[in-house]
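Reopening this ticket.

The earlier resolution said the output was attached, but the attachment link was broken on my side. Pasting everything inline this time so it's all in one place.
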Amino acid sequence: MTIEKFKRKLTVILSSDRLARLKKGALKFWKSIPTALKAAATIIIALNAGWQLYSRFTPSVEVIPKEKGIASVSKIEVATKEKMAFPLPDVPSIAVLPFVNMSEDPKQEFLCDGITESIITALSKVPSLFVISRNSTFFYKGKPVKVKQVSEELGVRYVMEGSVQRSSDRVRITVQLIDALSGNHLWAERYDRELKDLFALQDEITTKILTATQVKLTAGERASLVEKYFRGKQGLDCYLKILEGSKYLQLHTIEANSVARRIAEEAIAMCPKIPWTYNLLAWVYRQEYRFGSAKSPGETIEKTIEMAQKTLALDDSIAEAHALLSHMYCAIREYDKAIAEGERAVALDPSGAVAHEWYAMTLIYAGQPDEAIPLLQKAIRLSPLGSTSNFVFLGHALRMAGRFEEAISAYKKALQLSAHNIFPHLGLAVTYIQIAREKEARSEVEEILRLNPKFSLDSFAKTLSYKDSLVQIRFLKK
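Inline output:
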């Protein structure tokens, strides 16, 4: 019987007259079945329904004997060291993928992202662990990817996946940690907690990861994982506001930055003793300075420094604030302070791509390109799919160090990540002129003006902060 004939016959059977006769016959048949068989059928149906419900909300974990210390889910295609884009680090290496939002409310995305970022931040502060930055792992957000692909593209051994489902004041978080080289699930867990327990839960997950990868913490490092500020309902509300503000900040638009500023100011008013509120506002001011949307650039620089300093007055261990201060001290030509803040940021966040990148930028402006190069190379290793600016500044450092062909390669890699970014073209134009390749330099200038017909070299000059004025003059006169 063909599919079409089957459909037509089914339609006839389900007509009201036929359906009534079918029901009557089924009822007569059911009454004729012995009671014992009826009971057995009922039990089977109930067990099947229960299993479906259980399997829907429980990870399909096959428990392996406790002495092995691992759990196995399904067979995973293993990664190979030979196919990895980067050599594996000497210490345990991990990529934490963006947690999936299982809630019906799309607005809960910022909560999922915030949990992911909090775990990445906590892990990155552990010196004996190599952690890929959020800029690269969030490249996979919303994409169906395999553990093997993530491992080989980022050059890591361990991959963590998770999901979040929020319902009112409760949250369900499911996580699993996978060894990509063996295909084994080192650890898988589901947590059902009240939302107020979120911070303790994040610390617990972080500790489980470190245990599973056999990383040992010192007492100081263990203490850094303990949530100190976000306590009670008010602390939770502030935490959620900071997550929401950070989400807008990362959109990198003038409009979104204005929303982030409003949220940051509300968070400060609500929780004036929480340092992360001031840190958020500091980065908002920095964005205003970067976009040129501030009425007074000088005043905006002062506000950025003031908010970063307030952050550190409350908690000197926040690496992001030190990195930001390093950058802003360059803007006001206080290079010794800038270098000290950059060193502090990297010491606090040894796996932090942002800390390495911004300290390297400071060294470039301070006229120390050779010292900046390895920092930028590590920033790129920590975030191979992330920031275009890493490659742009690596190009600047290599060019200033006289390594022109390597500089050209770095600028071209930046363009592979962001084809419409004018700054790699600008770096290429300067480099080509320095090595007397005028035709190629002219082509780059034409591309800059095509991408931004209003581009002004004079306006761009105001954003440069080189300690050696001759370096800036040589850059601009090209």
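Reporter confirms the inline version is readable. The chain has a mean pLDDT of 81. The radius of gyration is 28 Å.
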